[in-house]
Amino acid sequence: MSNGGRRQDNDADRAQGAARDKSADLPAKAVRVLADEAVYRLAMRLRGPVELDRLDVSIDAFCQALLSSEPQDAGRIIAQERRDGVSLDTLYLHTIAGASRQLGEMWERDEIGFLKMTVAVGRIFTIIRQLRQEVPIAHPVPENPRRAFLASVPGETHTLGVTMAAAMLRDKGWEIDLLTGLDHDALVEACLAHDHLIFGFSAGREDAVVALIRLILAVRVERPSATIVVSGHVTDEVPGLSEMIAADAVIGEGDDIVAEMERVMVQAYSPTA
After folding, report:
1. Domain limits of the chain?
2. Main-chain phi, psi angles of 73, to 5 degrees
3. Which pLDDT score is estimated for 9?
4. Is the sign of the CA dihedral 105, 109, 114, 120 positive or negative?
5. What per-residue string of b and e applies to 94-128 under the rule 16 or more CB within 10 Å gives b?
6. Which of 2, 58, 125, 127 could form a disulfide with 246 if both were Cys (CB 3.0 to 4.6 A apart)?
7. Does domain 147-268 have CATH number 3.40.50.280?
8. pLDDT of amino acid 93
9. How far apart are the first and last CA of the chain?
10. Which of 264, 269, 44, 38 has its CA nearest to residue 137?
């Protein structure tokens, strides 16, 4: 079996495990957030009517690819659209947002189950992360590359973990900006006001996943070059979280935060990142 096949099987196993607990409604909420946040962020950024490129791929076809047993089908469609000259804005506004809405409607009509929805959401996030590679961005290494923006997700009340992580990193020479207690829009605005390349978001509660997904998508759209790290108790609470959100790194509670962030730093400033 290929590595892609083994990875898909592992993702399916994790998703089936999640289906047995109360997190089983997360994919439906997540896919709604994907659609709404992508359209909102692009509309705010473009500040005007958008001329959608002529598309040869229908939303139905893209949805079927996201639900396909072949993990690369959806990515191939996006790659072909890019080769055909379709803009990134059109991919977000038409293909990704449209498919997200349709998947949500299919879920509500019980046409697809939890497992397929979870896999589709994970594939959407993987595509969003990969799209940033379509716009090569130079990452000049600053005088001190050990710089990061850390924050707790909106609504998170347990902030001791991220506060301790910030202190540990500062002790090792990192420059850390730490924010807690902000709502979604304020936190996204704060992220964009900084020139950091590394963003670390911490969540503890299982029900914070939707807020986490919304935050990551907003930063992905507004700052394609960002390297996003997720940490906190939620990484252990939600099976398959890593595959669902497609962050650049997921740091579990038992991991060495300093060592993992050092690895992330190398990744962020790599010419191939």
Report:
1. 3-134, 147-268
2. -60, -50
3. 41
4. negative
5. bbbbbbbbbbbebbeeeebebbbbbbbbbbbbbbb
6. 125
7. yes
8. 75
9. 28
10. 269
